[in-house]
Design goal:
There is one protein chain. The protein is of the alpha/beta class. It has ten helices and 14 strands. Helix 1 packs across helix 2 and helix 1 crosses helix 3. 27% of the residues are buried.
Length: 313
Amino acid sequence: MRDHYALRAFRAIAEYGSFTRAAAALDVTPSALSQTLQQLESELGTRLLQRTTRRVGLTEAGQEMLHRIAPALNELDLALDAIRQHGDRPRGTVRITVPSVGARSIVEPMLGEFMARWPDVQLDIRVEDGLTDLVAEGLDAGIRLGERLQRDMVAIPIGGPLRAVVAGSPAYFKKYGRPKTPKDLQQHNCIKHRLASSGAIYRWEFAHRSGAQKGRWFEIAVDGSLTVNDVPLAVRAAEDGIGLTCVLETSARASLDDGRLENVLEPWLPPFDGFYLYYPSRFQVPPKLRVFIDFIREWGARDLASRSAPSSV
């Protein structure tokens, strides 16, 4: 197991690019981690890392090493977790990937309840807006919008359909007026969003209201003085009157409710497929993942019911 730990240590340093951050993740001191790596390099007779005062990088040998051991370590993690399942309660680590907006709207609200109910199940959550290959990265499950799901995955809807909003501050609308159709956005300062997966600027999406193309979606390339890659920053900029933003309604709900933002173009923004929990198709789902799947399904149903229930006066 000592060699196994040394390989894990090397993988952690390579992933974090830092002895300090890798040591924190492994719950050891940086000096102990450095000593482990030196012993591994000595046993192999080659340098695996290039160390500078600012960062840690891989040598050519280190790159080949990581490429070869990462799949094996992922399989070993899965095997160890499977053995742990033979206890009385589900246990082990569930590794999931989730986009930032899903982390705020889904994971944050359910996290405390899940971990209190299943104290022997650990969650390893990667918040990332780019697309991730679950199998290649050794992940158990992911949360994504329906249109971005990987192929050959089992998918479970969470919380029902979503919708986007185009929103601006009352001060902005007082000064510049309100767009009546998506084409009117060409006359407005729009806050652009850069996609993490491709680096491209997101084209705002709308659906035709009538005619032969009723219900079909089309895109508008907007322009403006501000480009961001963070939804809360876009919402805050819209609140400050910088321009209009197009985000999921859940991301702007608090600002819309208290009047900091007002939405426009509602008839052009019908609901669409919301978030899904997805995982690789397997004949037997490990108990640790099964309880997470069942909890997400339960939480999603409760959340949808609460949003659908009529509000009391």
